[in-house]
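step=encode ok
step=design start
structure_in=
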């Protein structure tokens, strides 16, 4: 590995993103073989007062919550308290008598929804948006919840039971569709564990890994570290704003609805420990552990199973976002199966990870023992070309070839 080449290449890519106005402020960590090889903060957090991005800034993770939810679910599976074939309705009665939307009206689901359907996003559940009839139906429910304080919303289980009463976009297992599956998994964790989703996640995943800044809200004493959120205007300028999205608002207040799909806030260092745990087969190495001793969250065989592609070719056909070109999906994460379809080279089968609505991104490549975590807070911030430029700079510095 040419470390100087890797560091210079990454610094150039990160600075260029800021200089050309594609982002206000960003942060990145890169690890190779459990060694940190690059860290950096770029741009500013606050354009109004010039506050710089800081290493301990707390970020809205949105969908990068999903891999943590998947790990939390799999801890229950290792305990024998939950399995992929379990029916969702056995834990959440709102999912009994499922209906599926058709142009001619709702029809009964052909089979029951399973935990595996949720983990692989083939459940038929939708997110609220105006682009299809099922998603449009959800807008009223979400709008009603978002009109309330986080303390007044429905709790996690009640919220998800309500989701089960809406028609599905398609038959369970028919195809991939990105929706509220991870939220429903969070509710199932609550039912099975007998604890709140937050409490169980903290006990089994966050606290053992030393993820002390990761939570479903930002406490008052940490608000000075809460990263600014930006929305890009049509003219390319940015406005600093705190949006309400997916029933997430007023993030300094402990919420009743603990969203397994989008609710967590975290730091680069916290999420790095989580990613390194997955990279090392479910065990965080001692050098990155808060106690100085290795911490095991999952068995290696569980992580191996989690990071395998799960979609059939027919299901994958619907997994057609730009950021998923070349990837399959499983356990709430993308998994690279067709490296010839991505724009960086070399690319390695088995690379996995996920991203979030504000542009945050995690990549884990077990073939080369490489992990990076990139943070940015920009609404609708998916930036596939940037992710690929980062990978290219890393691989160029690692001087890999295939």
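sequence_out=
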């Amino acid at each position: 590995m040419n470390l100087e080449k890797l560091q210079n290449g990454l610094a150039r890519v990160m600075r260029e993103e800021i200089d050309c106005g594609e982002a206000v402020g960003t942060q990145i960590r890169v690890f190779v073989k459990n060694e940190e090889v690059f860290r950096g903060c770029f741009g500013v957090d606050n354009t109004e007062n010039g506050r710089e991005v800081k290493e301990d800034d707390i970020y809205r993770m949105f969908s990068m919550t999903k891999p943590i939810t998947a790990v939390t679910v799999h801890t229950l599976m290792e305990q024998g308290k939950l399995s992929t074939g379990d029916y969702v309705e056995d834990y959440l009665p709102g999912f009994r008598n499922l209906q599926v939307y058709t142009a001619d009206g709702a029809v009964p689901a052909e089979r029951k929804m399973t935990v595996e359907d949720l983990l692989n996003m083939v459940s038929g559940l939708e997110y609220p948006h105006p682009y299809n009839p099922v998603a449009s139906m959800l807008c009223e429910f979400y709008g009603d919840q978002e009109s309330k304080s986080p303390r007044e919303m429905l709790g996690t289980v009640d919220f998800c039971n309500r989701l089960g009463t809406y028609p599905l976009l398609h038959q369970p297992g028919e195809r991939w569709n990105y929706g509220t599956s991870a939220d429903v998994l969070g509710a199932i964790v609550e039912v099975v564990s007998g604890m709140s989703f937050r409490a169980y996640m903290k006990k089994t995943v966050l606290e053992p890994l030393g993820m002390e800044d990761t939570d479903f809200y930002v406490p008052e004493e940490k608000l000075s570290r809460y990263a600014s959120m930006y929305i890009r205007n049509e003219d390319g300028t940015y406005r600093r704003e705190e949006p309400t999205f997916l029933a997430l608002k007023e993030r300094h207040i402990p919420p009743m609805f603990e969203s397994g799909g989008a609710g967590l806030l975290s730091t680069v260092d916290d999420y790095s420990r989580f990613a390194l745990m997955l990279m090392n087969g479910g065990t965080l190495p001692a050098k990155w552990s808060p106690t100085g001793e290795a911490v095991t969250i999952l068995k290696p065989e569980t992580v191996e199973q989690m990071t395998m592609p799960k979609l059939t070719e027919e299901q994958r056909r619907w997994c057609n976002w730009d950021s998923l070109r070349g990837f399959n999906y499983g356990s709430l994460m993308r998994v690279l199966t067709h490296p010839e379809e991505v724009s960086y080279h070399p690319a390695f089968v088995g690379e996995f990870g996920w991203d979030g609505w504000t542009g945050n991104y995690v990549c884990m490549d077990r073939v080369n023992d490489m992990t990076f975590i990139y943070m940015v807070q920009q609404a609708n911030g998916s930036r596939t070309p940037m992710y690929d430029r980062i990978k290219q700079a890393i691989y160029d510095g690692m001087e890999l070839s295939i």
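step=design ok
step=annotate ok -> The chain has two domains: 3-60+210-398, 70-199.
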